[in-house]
Amino acid sequence: MYGHHRASIRQHVRLVEHGAASVWSVTCPPQFPRALAPVRRTATRRIHLLLLSHGEAAILHDGRETVLGAGDFYCDDRVRPLQLRGGPIRAVGIALPEALLPLPPDETDRMLGRRIAGRAGSGALLARLLTQLTEDTGTFQPADGPRLGTVLGNMVAALLSHSPDGDTDTDADTGSSNTGTDAGRPLTVRIMAFIQRRLSDPELTPRAVAAAHGISLSYLHRLFEAERETVAAYIRRRRLERARFDLADPAQAATPVHAVAARWGFARATDFARAFRAVYGIAPTDFRRQAGAPGGRIAT
Fold first, then answer.
1. Is the pTM of the predicted complex or chain greater than 0.85?
2. What is the CA radius of gyration of the chain?
3. What is the DSSP letter of 24?
């Protein structure tokens, strides 16, 4: 956790668990650069998001200094050492398993080590919720934890997916970058959004996608030549990502694995298990069991 220092510097820390997500707040006096040790690697990667609510601070990371003002978020995975300086400051934050973020890993990776403005839109909404969760702990019941963790995962994903990255703009429905340089790109984006809305349909195939858009199958394949994967691979990846998210969700622990597979378009549980293991290196049942283990140790 950020800001875990000796009591002699008179800081105040509050930590609240909501399912697999940890929400915290910290108030500390001015300080010189202080090392924040990396988190020990486990079977999962946890994403950490800090929001500076009052004051100014700087984070030194990999030789780069990121200056934060009130209302700014900072995202990282805490696998490399950091230094924090500034103050007096107040901050809130969240740490949660990457599996609870309904985003492709590369979508999360692009925001690591970056400052993210949180004064408007999804950032402002997340900031208010994090503040309320740390200040009004008595208003929530233990049974609320898993569902709040799921809500927080979705809100963090919304913030990361809508944050700009260089000259590209990420499309929230498709998880792909759109530079606007390809004349066929608008159609590709519409097709990806169409696929995303129909992932639960087991009859969703490249041929069905082409027919729904009035284009030939060969032209559909040509459109996807500019992407990182084929149409079929894109459909399979998005289905697996949604199933993985549901399996990691404590609120859905009673839903059978085969039902999760069917929900996302896998007609046969054996096909789902094979595809899941091929991508994530673990069986769906083992993944769910590790997701529910103490500390949220989720194999990815």
1. no
2. 21
3. E
